[in-house]
Structures are given as C-alpha cells and as structure tokens.
Amino acid sequence: MPSRYLLRFSALGYLAMLLLIPLGMVFYRAFEHGFSAAWDAVTSPDAVHALWLTLLVTLIAVPLNTVFGITCSLLIVRGHLRGKGILNALVDLPLALSPIVVGLSLLILYGRGGWLGPWLNDHGIQVVFALPGLVLATVFVSLPFVVREVVPVLREIGTEQEQAASTLGASAVQIFRRVTLPAIRWGVVYGIVLTTARCLGEFGAVSVVSGNIEGKTETMTLYVENQYQGFNTSGAYAASVVLALLSVVTLVAMTLFRRKEEI
Amino acid sequence: MVTGYLSVIVLLPLAALVWEAHKGGLSGFWKTITAPEAVAAIELTLVVSVVVALINAIAGTAIAWVLVRDKFAGKSFVNTLIDLPFALPTIVAGLTLLALYGPVSPVGINVAFTRISVVMALLFVTLPFVVRTVQPVLTELDREMEQAAASLGANRFAIFRRVVFPNLLPAILSGVALAFARAVGEFGSVVLISGNLPFKTEVASVYIFSQVESDDPGGAAAVSVLLLVISFIALLAIGAVRRYATRHDAE
Asked: N or C: which end of chain A has fewer CB within 10 A?
C-alpha cells in the first residue's frame, strides 16, 4: 500500500524536521566548542544560582497546586455548588491565557502604583522583582494540570466505595485517605509531573515580574535568554541542554505514569 | 478555600489588569488598541494563529492516524516524542529552531526574523494538541463501521470522508481551538527567532512585553485585555464542541 507509506513518511518527516533534528542541533551547538566550555557555562555562579532559583520556585509552586488541585477536583466532581461552570472555566483559563498577560496582571496588582503596591512597600514586602512574584507567576500558569488529570479519574471511580466506607462508619478524613486518595493516586502523580514540567520551563510570565536581576531573580529560562541576547550563544545552548535533559526526564515520567494509569 | 486561592492567584490580578486597561475610559482603551503598531501586532497574531491551527488540523490528524493505525519500529518512541513540546521550556523551543533554521544554519535555511519563523515556532509548541485529542478517539473508533462501509463498496477515500472524519471532527475541532488559543498567547518560543520587528514579525504578546519595558502599562494592559477576551472565547468554543460531541452520551 503506497499511500500508507506516503502518510507514514510525511508524518514522521514532519516530526523530524520540526522536533527531532532541531533538538539534536541544540546538543551539537552546546558541545561544538568542547565539553569543558559547555561545563564552564553551566557551572558559572550565575548559572548555578539560576538553576537553584528555578528549582526553589518549582518546589514551592508544585505542592501548593497539588493540594489545591485535589481539593478543587473534589469540589468540581463531588461538590454541590452553584457556578461550577465558572469554576471550571477559571481553572482552565491559565491554559489558554498568554503568560505575558499573567505576568503583566501581577505587575499591575503588586507593582509600584498598583492596588497593593503602596501597602506592600510600606510594610517592606517586595513581591515584584523578587521571589514572591516569581512564585505567584509560576503558580498561576501551572494551576490547571493536577485538576485536569484528577477530575476525569474521580468521575470514573464513582462514589460507591466511598458510600460503602461511610456506612461502615469511616469519617470523611478516613474515607479520603483510605479510599479516594489511593484510587486517584496515578492521576495525581501524572498531574504533578505535568505541573513540574510547566514550573521548570515557565518563561513569559516570569520574565515580566522578575526584573531580570542577574544572580538574584534570574531563573534558568531567563538565563538562557540573557546569555543568547548577550551573544554568548554556546552558554545559552549549554543551559538549554540542562533544561532539555530535565524535559526528557519529565517525558519518561509521563510515559511511565500514563501507562500505569491506563492499566 | 478553593475560591480564596483562585481569587488571590487568578481573579485579583486579572481584575487589576482590566482596571488598568480601563483607566482612560472606553475611548482611551479603543485608542490604545488601535495604535498602528498594536493593530499590526494583533493582526499578525490572529492570521498566524489561524494558519498554525489549520496546519495542525491536517498534520495533527495525520500523525494521530499513523500512531494508531500504522505499525512500524520505534512507534512508542515517536509517541513519546509528541509530548516533547509540552515538556520543553518555550525559550529552549525557540533556541532549538534557531539552531537549525537560524543565521548559522548548517543546512543553509535561515528563516530568522521572518514571519515564517513565527509560524514554525508556533507549530513547534502547538504540535501535541490535535494529536493528543484525536488519538484516543481514533483508538476507540469501531473498525466495524469502516468494514461495513467497505463491504458496501465504498473506496478508502469515501470511508475516510463519510465514516471516519465525522467521528473525528469534534476532537479535531477542540484540538484546533486549543492550538489556536496557545498560538495567540505564545511568547517564549517566538521572542528569539522572530526578531520582534514592529509591523513585520512582532506578535501581540511581544508587543505587550515591549510596552511594559518602555513603561507604558496602560497600553500593555489594553492589548492584554483583548488577549484575555480571545482566550475566554476559545475556552467557550472548546466547551461547546465537547458538549456537542458528548450530546448523545447522557441519553
């Protein structure tokens, strides 16, 4: 069947041209001036600080959105409240909204001249151009992932087991810990993987609120951009390789956990 | 608790944004978003996003088809590769394309600072949407319908057009809407490769960013509100397609 091969090769060719070969080139560019040059670029104090800051922001944002995600999913699936449609739409909004708009909104709210800016300033709290701003931006953009993964699982498992536990005298907390949580755990884990990937890679929202202070509020993705703009392309590619390797780890985790979920 | 968290994280900042955009009144808002550079950026964003969404509709469906119906070595690797744009930071995605199709391209193709580069960057980051919405539907699709059509003498093109395609259409549409929404707001992958030339390759999100940099939050906020409205419309469209696709399920 020639048409079958034609389709196969055009689909795979498209993927190779768009994804695989460019990605390979990043690795080539990073190491084209030798391994030690690339190593120096990613172990400079600014690069190490940027990586550390990215990990710190991720470590704060992921637990927050995990707890929120599970609670919000329970509310959407099991809760009896009005305005569920609005809740659903709000949770999905970060998926469709430009990260630049997210960053700008935070800048207007917390920046000088914003609603909360003067009050925060009087109390010596800095949000914008500091860690809290980075965290708020990251939490905003990575908000939907746990909810989107857990909601369908919750719908599927139904309430029979929870009702059975309840008739046997289990408290709400016991039901959640012993019945609901084990049933949704792979959905939660998959959601956490997606959230982590988004947090590590966030760029647009963070670049608006960070102020790009080298060695202070520069995350790994901002470091990549600043190196590239500063004509240190091999440094930018070397830092990109670090981020790309983190993405590969994420991809492997995604594949593993999705398979588990389907069994 | 959920409402409180959502209000602080999502609602309050967006309210501040709308308030900032509305500071100069409706006429001020209108004047800001009809500034020539803003109009050019918005137009480019919309046109490019439509082009990207359409290419995705075809390429994404073809890739999903190959992944579900075809058999070849390394299929699970390709299947994993589809999620790469989800996992890869957007700034790295932009740099990735620059490495192959930029000024020092080893294959002699340099699209940097052209509109083609914007399309390519957006194709990269929106690749998974159509594939991942069509793939499960295609897997679930009953082969018996196609066999019945074949036994009644339909050729393969007719089977695809009359049997398979109508079943896939809601999934394709919701994937296309997701890709469109993503393309409209995309920033990280575009910012390096497009060169951000006003009136030529500057997309809306980059325009907003440059307004922020030149200390014009009002102008930035006005265009942002427009993007916010487009996001809402895209989400509503996706919701409507999903309801339409599952309209028989409850009966």
From this structure: C
